[in-house]
Amino acid sequence: MKLSTGLTLAASLIAVPALAQDKTVTIASWGGSYQEAQSKALFGPASEATGIVVKEETYGGMSDVRLQVTSGAVTLDIVASGSGSAARAGAEGLLEELDYSIIDVSDFYTTLYSKHCVGGDVFSTVYAWNTDTYGDAGPQSWADFFDVEKFPGKRAYRAKVAGALEPALMADGVAMEDVYSVLDSEEGIERALNKIRELKPNIDVFWTSGAQHAQLMKDGEVDMTTGWNGRFDNAAKDGAQVKYSYNQALLDYDCFAIPLGAPNKDTAMMFLAEISKPEYQANLPLYITYGPTNKAAYDLGKIDAEMVAMLPSSPDNAALQLPVSLDWYAKWETIADEMYQEMLTE
Fold it and tell me: Are the C-beta atoms of residues 248 and 141 closer than 8 Å to each other?
């Protein structure tokens, strides 16, 4: 009896890691220093802790998810997404509903998760400038960014509508708190597009990825650009002559979603639960200056006071910024992006 019990116990101990090793998730993100940070802070440690094998890919955003879902050939289990794009994709029925009885968000900021997407980091869309061109006296508002007489030089701007219209309206004199009410019509969207049309002769590059806009600054190809704060911090570490300001920046968050029909949906849900824990969230600012979405991450002692002061979600920095409206993106992103792409081809 003792021998039989011992053999059974030994077999069960062997079977647990074997079963864990059989679990796999394919995660798509955006590459560059951002995905490298995710790998080191989240994916790698969580894979080691759970035994879930992680296969990483890069992708082009929710348009890739839409293609997979509509064709019935879904290969991705988890995708990193901007919050606005996820809101729209969820409204289209492209994403699975997340199970918050499995994913613990009790310590999350309430605005940083939704029915279809759980926050992975807090970031800001900022204006950045080349210090070789302007020194420390670069633009301090979106009006400055659009002012080619006060700040002559080459610009770069995003090729997608997310984060592109709000700066244009602020540059056109709309108060930060009124931006989304003005954008809540095709006329308001057109007003923003007209402002970008004015700047277009000075825009040398419409960037398509964070890796690209960081490289533009590292190579000195443009004098200023829009982009994501953490990418610029990492570029500066690599020698780029770049600074940015949080004044009038767009306070936003990236999140993780599960495409509808994901082949490993249950495992994906388990993996999202793991990387949402504070011990992983606290790792992220060590690799890229994006803030954790889990408030408990600040209590673990991994993020020092100097780093907290650099993060977009710190109270002083957040107070300067416009929080991105997911409601607006769910309602308007498809229409606005069509109008934006037409403007780009003019």
Answer: yes
Task: Name residues whose C-beta falls within 8 Å of residue 35's C-beta, 6 or more positions apart in sequence.
Answer: 29, 56, 58, 80
Considering only CA atoms, give the Rg of the chain: 22
Q: Look up residue 318 and give its two tokens.
A: 């957040």
Contacts of 146 by beta carbon, 8 Å cutoff, 6+ apart: 168, 171, 195, 198, 199
Is the Cβ–Cβ distance between 225 and 207 less than 8 Å?
Answer: yes
Question: pLDDT at residue 163 above 80?
Answer: yes
Q: How far apart are CA 79 and CA 271, in angstroms?
A: 12
pLDDT interval class at 121 (50, 70, 90): very high
CA dist 99 and 262 (Å) reads: 14
In whole angstroms, give the CA distance from residue 28 to residue 258: 10
Global pTM value: 0.80
CA distances from 268 to 47, 125, 199, 271 (A): 12, 28, 43, 5
